[in-house]
Amino acid sequence: MSAQPGTIASSSLIQEQRSRRDALDERLFRWLLMGCALLVLASLLGAAGATLWGGREAFATFGWHFLVSTAWDPGNDVYGALVPVYGTIATSLIALLIAVPVSFGIALYLSEVAPPWLRTPVSSAIELLAGIPSIIYGMWGLFIFAPFFADHIKPWLTSNLGDKPDDGKVSWLVQHVPFIGKLFGSDYPFGASILVAGIVLAIMIIPFISSVMREVFQTVPTRLKESAYALGSSTWEVSWDIVLPYTRGAVIGGIFLGLGRALGETMAVTFVLGNAMTLSASLLDPGTSIASTIANQFSEASGLQKSSLMALAFLLFVVTFIVLLIARLMLRQLARKEGR
Amino acid sequence: MNSLYLRRRIINWLAMGFSMLATLVGLAFLAWILWETLRQGIAALNPSLFTKITAYGADGGLANAMVGSLVINFIGIAIATPIGVLAGAWLAEYANRTKLGESIRFLNDILLSAPSIVIGLFVYTIVVLPSTALTHGSTTFSGLAGGIALALIALPVIVRTTDEMLRLVPSTLREAALSLGVPQWKLTLQILIRAARSGIITGVLLALARISGETAPLLFTAFGNNYMAVNPIDKMSSLPQIIYQYANDPGDAMHSMAWAGAFVVTMFVLLLSLASRLVLSRNKVSHE
Known about the structure:
heterodimer; A: mainly alpha; 15 helices; 2 strands; 1% strand; flat; B: mainly alpha; globular
């Protein structure tokens, strides 16, 4: 607002003062707002910095060996990250293997197959799954799903796919396909295991992946789909050959978003992972993940152990940051394509 | 009917069948989880849960955890709401097409799904450790630290919804106000935020729903307390933390109390997400 030439000198002075005050207010307000926005940046940098600072002792003591060592021995004060890192990656990959096809099916159903009146209620129900706190998944996994798994699914897996079956007879499949026996062989009696943690994680990330997929499927121009239908394509062919290639980048982005969630999830996996600091090739044996190791041990840890836990948190943060960065970049490509 | 046509039809049927099956599986797990929470939670509900504290163990209740949860969530929302709304306003009004604005918006989306346990360790480093050092150990873990951790988790949710909702406000409103000579800060605070009010409230409710189930960051910040605490600089327990503790306890009585806590948290979260939907849909109707 600029001062107008006034008929009376004092009025013009007042106007000028006022416009100067407005400009000052404006500048202060702008700084305040920008400060608030920069807090977002500060908390990301701070989280990385704080965990790196906390973990400096562990990094200095163990060096690169920290990443490849399977040791986790508070008695001798020797720590390595490999067991929790392996657990985190294994559970997240199992979660993706299950969640990606199921999410694709759900997104396909909601965008192409379901009658229109059914779409909104079903999709809000699936989104409800995303709203349930992770500790509820953890409890359900611990008290309901893990026992169910141990009673009904695990015996079948160990006797048909594992190298340590209860009746001692190794199945034909295990004798002829390498590795599979190791993956499913276990004599651990309880349900808590890497596989169960992966399944619980899969249920947790399905709503995230499927809602991204459904959203991007709806961005496909109708004329593309209709052209394909007019040429005689089936619903499946339209989905697989038109919709999916058109949205490929964003679909991968959605999958990475789910992966980012799965990597950093704490409570749901802590309950069902069994918390064993040993490396086992079997998916039916208990394990641990970065987040659950921290949740279980941090309160009672001190010295080098605490520093090692901080170092683990730093690794987790960096890896999830990279995964989420890829996810957002992929998702942004689609937004650009639409001209948003 | 030739064989190619038949094969294509079969593949199509299989795919459609698979998509229906996938949806049913998703819904089945939702129903299973909700059903167990309701069944076990309602069975464990009794009045002493709301009146007794956790110090009595199996004979006690969850009163201090509920109060703690309310206090910590309140602190979290009270910190995150003003900061988040102002940051969102900056993104939408001042930095909409600038490089810095785009980067912050992008990083905010990453913070939205950053692992909450790392946020907990961050707040442990910047709040719990300094307060221990400053008070020579008399104040270590505190409800305030828990609230700050939850605020960092709520912040990106509020920033994002505010940003989105402000960008939906028609630009004619901005132009009308600016042409009357209203300074931009007044325009932002008194007109735009008011116009986007219901959207912003939705964001705050969603953020509250998000943080009220968070457990991981509270373990190293609010820590837990078996007695009633309302002073934010005391150690404080919260429902999710008590659920975590009781579910890991070997006793069955503790498990049923954990289920009761889980039931209360789930109901609270579901009601909040329902309320946020209502706020948004009511506003949509009034615009039309």
